[in-house]
């Protein structure tokens, strides 16, 4: 990768080993540092969106802004960045390369500049360095090398850098689905950090072939107000919500041979607050990570059964978090280990590392659920590893970032070449 690769990478090749050799380690890490130094919490991605667009544009890759809009709940307006490398065969598959540009809000516990991009002992530090600017740098470099080299790919390669993955609804990826862009695609690679969020302990090089899904219970508990000096005359909604939260956390959930067990985690109880009053109402939010087979009806019925078993004095209304549309949810998925995409990436891993990849499954949710479940695309996560994601001291292993760029490049050639 160079500042003007179109002038230097003009030798035709479909050899993955030759192509990965054109990915410069130092320049890849410099790009990552630039990305980390841009503050980009979800809903505030304007600066990094412009950077990614300009970076691709300066290399002659004809990027475009893809508008993202959600007026009803968040009022969000923003842009994804897309770029396409056209293949030679209209019947060949189209491959989506995806990464998100946003981070969580910068946490206060950092004892250094959270946007420094400092490198020490092979680790690059900064909020979002691992989740997922390392993966973003990886697909930017991979796309750049493939587009700047005279490679006759049969199928199209679609680059997508999206907004709001860390936000409540994954609005950037949702817009790709809503605008039927994913309908043009046959498979997807997402460069989220892999091993750190796998269901089991694995190390890179690794391919994650599926993920659990998620519902968010939004439960209203309604009791009866009374004077706080005589609590026996009322029904305390906060107390009953606490009992319900404890029971939900302990309830039986589904299991899957690949995705492992589901889980329930109460995350918020809000209610009461009146001086010397028994709380009349309370709101309980609980995360429910699900596996294949745990549908919305199943998840609702499970909670209703827990409520019935508790026989609370309060009334309980079980709902789910509001969403922009009924289909905007994170469904679980598994990609077949024999899928051509998996074989192509396994070949890429072998080309880059001389190893076979570890195989794992993601424990949480992200844009990959929209591709693997809603869009029904074979979807594989291949990303760098690190530590402290979403927290102070977040870092990514720099060698992993370079390896991901090279594995993705080799995998693309293997699948589309």
From TrEMBL:
What taxonomic lineage is listed for the species of origin? Archaea, Methanobacteriati, Methanobacteriota, Stenosarchaea group, Halobacteria
Cofactor(s) listed: Zn(2+)
Q: Which InterPro entries match?
A: ArgE/DapE_CS, Bact_exopeptidase_dim_dom, Peptidase_M20, Peptidase_M20_dimer, Peptidase_M20A
Gene3D superfamilies xref list = 3.30.70.360, Zn peptidases
GO molecular function of the protein, one example? hydrolase activity
Q: Which family does it belong to?
A: Belongs to the peptidase M20A family.
Top-level lineage group: Archaea
Show the SUPFAM superfamilies listed in the entry: Bacterial exopeptidase dimerisation domain, Zn-dependent exopeptidases
Ribonucleoprotein as a keyword of this entry, yes or no, is: no
- Please give the name of this protein: Peptidase M20
Segments traversing the membrane = none
Keyword Metal-binding attached: yes
UniProt entry keywords in alphabetical sequence: Hydrolase, Metal-binding, Zinc
Q: Which residues form the Peptidase M20 dimerisation domain?
A: 210-310
